[in-house]
Write a structure and sequence with these properties.
The chain has 135 residues and is an all-alpha fold. 92% of the residues lie in helices and 0% in strands.
Length: 135
């Protein structure tokens, strides 16, 4: 559309130049062609402005989409890191529980209630420390 407007403006400008040579600067034909040329130049400029505005809007939309994509990738990476930390925490807690059960079994039936409670308290303290270090 813009290229068509440019060709029309160029053709009118050439036609105006020939009319000036044939009819003189002050003829009515020249005045009409000058008016038509100005109108076409305005239309051409409006199209150019519209194209420029559309291009800028598209660039802004692309930039916004890239920003959203970047933020999504960052969030996905953070989620992956958190899942890894959660798995490590679960693994550490499972090991602690296994150690506790082993120690409890080692104490056996002969252990006093105090020894069993001390073992349980130690185990809970270790679980707390592991959880605190991972969070």
């Amino acid at each position: 559309q813009y290229a068509v407007a440019q060709r029309a403006t160029q053709a009118t400008a050439e036609h105006l130049q020939r009319a000036k040579e044939l009819y003189g600067e002050n003829s009515t034909v020249v005045a009409k062609l000058e008016s038509k040329l100005r109108s076409q130049q305005i239309t051409e400029q409006q199209l150019a402005n519209s194209i420029k505005q559309t291009s800028e809007s598209l660039k802004q939309a692309r930039d916004a989409e890239q920003e959203r994509t970047s933020e999504t990738a960052k969030a996905a990476q953070k989620l992956k890191e958190l899942k890894g930390q959660e798995e490590q925490l679960q693994s550490s807690l499972s090991k602690l529980n296994a150690q506790y059960e082993l120690q409890k079994a080692t104490l056996g039936e002969n252990a006093s209630e105090i020894e069993k409670l001390r073992l349980k308290i130690d185990n809970l303290g270790e679980q707390h420390n592991v959880a605190a270090s991972k969070v």
